């Protein structure tokens, strides 16, 4: 049992440190560790687990780690795999953040970060375009996109509530559409 | 007291951000309006660093935000609070609902969530653009033309198929160099 927990921690630590940016980029590394090396799961099941991670709350990479850890060694396994996945982030970010706190006032860094923020705007706009392309499939999608944008811009409704409303809307709309489809046939 | 707030806020973010690390961005931006943990400008730096270091972006950002708010203990608390809701939810699903992602209700809910999250992130990104591409004095925004041109050029470059595989870190380093050279 101890050996299994240790293996879970180490392999998700490795996956965490080698997945720059998370998301789909982690899949090759995930496959190498959990499918090829330890045979904890098959490639198909791994993709299913990844899909579950995508449509549940939280960070996808962490959700995948929790799922596989739990499958292998119960609640403790889930916790250990999750901790393994987040440990590299915590160490690296803490090192960078404390170093920057010390030197952030130097003019070179201030200019560098002003430039970085400009590029981050471009990078994030690019990500939003990609997400919108993938997520908006029909007129209803366009409507939800516009409605959510207007709500975020002009109303004090909390972000969490907007997301819950969108989920409820999606379910009700699907019901409504399947009923209409049923009548026609 | 700050620890209680950190726990509450990051637990909430973990519970409601569906669709990965980027989905936490609107929530993190919202924190800047309600707490003095970090400014919008610092938030921009956090996003940049989180995108260019190893590890899931969402975890990196939570760790960074927690550190800004309350040092090392704050970073640990923020990250653990962020993963706690999913930890419980995933274990329940793994035990009882293996076909969760094929469930028609889940699929329908997600069809509603996806365009919405994209819009919420767009809103947050535009807020970041406002402070990165304009000089803010009080309530007036004066366009910083060099910044705007650089942003448009980079966005254009990012749309080119041949450049899609370039890692964000490379773009971010290029931004740092331009920032120093042009004294942005």
From TrEMBL, chain A:
Localization per Swiss-Prot or TrEMBL: Cell membrane
Transmembrane segments: 12-29, 75-96, 108-129, 141-174
Listed GO CC annotations: plasma membrane
Main location: membrane
Membrane-topology descriptor: Multi-pass membrane protein
Domain of life: Bacteria
A Pfam family of this chain: Chromate_transp
InterPro entries the record matches: CHR_Transporter, Chromate_transpt
GO molecular function, one term: chromate transmembrane transporter activity
UniProt keyword annotations, A-Z: Cell membrane, Membrane, Transmembrane, Transmembrane helix
Protein family: Belongs to the chromate ion transporter (CHR) (TC 2.A.51) family.
Name used for this protein in its record: Chromate transporter
Organism: Hespellia stercorisuis DSM 15480
From TrEMBL, chain B:
Protein localization: Cell membrane
Entry keywords, A to Z: Cell membrane, Membrane, Transmembrane, Transmembrane helix
Molecular-function GO terms, alphabetical: chromate transmembrane transporter activity
Location, primary (coarse class): membrane
Membrane topology note: Multi-pass membrane protein
Coiled-coil zones: none
GO cellular component: plasma membrane
Family (UniProt): Belongs to the chromate ion transporter (CHR) (TC 2.A.51) family.
Protein name: Chromate transporter
UniProt organism field: Hespellia stercorisuis DSM 15480
């Amino acid at each position: 049992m101890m050996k299994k927990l240790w293996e879970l921690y180490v392999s998700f630590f490795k996956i965490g440190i080698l997945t720059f940016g998370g998301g789909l980029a982690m899949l090759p590394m995930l496959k190498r560790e959990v499918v090829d090396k330890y045979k904890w799961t098959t490639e198909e099941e791994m993709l299913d687990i990844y899909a579950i991670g995508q449509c549940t709350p939280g960070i996808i990479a962490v959700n995948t780690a929790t799922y596989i850890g739990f499958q292998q060694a119960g609640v403790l396994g889930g916790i250990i795999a999750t901790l393994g996945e987040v440990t590299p982030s915590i160490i690296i970010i803490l090192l960078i953040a404390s170093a920057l706190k010390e030197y952030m006032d130097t003019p070179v860094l201030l200019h560098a970060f002003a430039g970085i923020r400009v590029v981050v705007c471009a990078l994030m706009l690019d990500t939003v375009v990609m997400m919108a392309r993938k997520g908006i499939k029909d007129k209803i999608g366009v409507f939800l996109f516009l409605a959510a944008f207007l709500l975020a811009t002009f109303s004090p409704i909390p972000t969490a509530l907007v997301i819950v409303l969108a989920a409820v809307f999606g379910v009700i709309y699907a019901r409504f559409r399947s009923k209409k489809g049923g009548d026609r046939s | 007291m700050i620890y209680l707030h950190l726990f509450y806020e990051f637990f909430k973010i973990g519970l409601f951000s569906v669709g990965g690390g980027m989905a936490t961005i609107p929530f993190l931006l919202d924190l800047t309006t309600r707490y003095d943990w970090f400014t919008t400008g610092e938030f921009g730096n956090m996003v940049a660093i989180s995108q260019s270091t190893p590890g899931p972006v969402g975890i990196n950002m939570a760790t960074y935000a927690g550190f800004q708010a309350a040092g090392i203990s704050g970073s640990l608390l923020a990250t653990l609070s962020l993963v706690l809701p999913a930890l419980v939810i995933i274990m329940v699903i793994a035990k009882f609902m293996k076909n969760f992602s094929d469930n028609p209700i889940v699929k329908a809910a997600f069809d509603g969530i996806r365009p919405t999250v994209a819009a919420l992130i767009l809103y947050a990104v535009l807020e970041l653009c406002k402070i990165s591409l304009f000089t803010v004095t009080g309530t007036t925004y004066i366009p910083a033309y060099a910044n705007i041109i650089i942003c448009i050029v980079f966005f254009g470059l990012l749309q080119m198929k041949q450049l899609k595989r370039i890692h964000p870190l490379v773009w971010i380093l290029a931004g740092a160099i331009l920032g120093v050279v042009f004294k942005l």
